[in-house]
Design brief:
The protein has about 110 residues and is mainly α. The protein has one domain. About 70% of the residues lie in helices and about 0% in strands. α5 crosses α6. The model has no long low-confidence stretch (mean pLDDT about 90).
Length: about 110
């Protein structure tokens, strides 16, 4: 069962500013927070702590990105395949950030 009442709307311009000001620390927080929202929206227990830690470790980050990509694909019900999102993580991560936040904001707007 999909659940959206917990999803937080985030200003995308402010996210970029916070990422620059915090020298990237906000991006780590964003990964953690949004993965937790995706998990809950997809009806799963637990947050994104372990996956966020893995995202900070070379090579292991690929497993974290793979997991995140497929959680996002499930959230958007296959609008984009998980493998495509994973490739975007590797090629140009800001596109993933934009797509995910756009869909999360859309869900927050319509379900809160």
């Amino acid at each position: 069962m999909f659940q959206y009442d917990h999803i937080k709307h985030r200003n995308m311009v402010m996210q970029v500013i916070l990422t620059i000001i915090t020298l990237g620390i906000y991006a780590i927080y964003w990964f953690y927070a949004t993965l937790g929202e995706l998990h809950r929206a997809n009806g799963k227990e637990g947050g994104g702590c372990l996956w966020t830690i893995l995202a900070l470790i070379p090579i292991a980050h690929l497993f974290a990105w793979w997991h995140y990509s497929h959680e996002y694909a499930a959230f958007i019900r296959g609008k984009y395949p998980g493998i495509a999102i994973f490739i975007l993580w590797i090629v140009f991560p800001p596109v993933v950030w934009f797509l995910v936040q756009l869909d999360l904001n859309r869900a927050a707007r319509f379900h809160n």
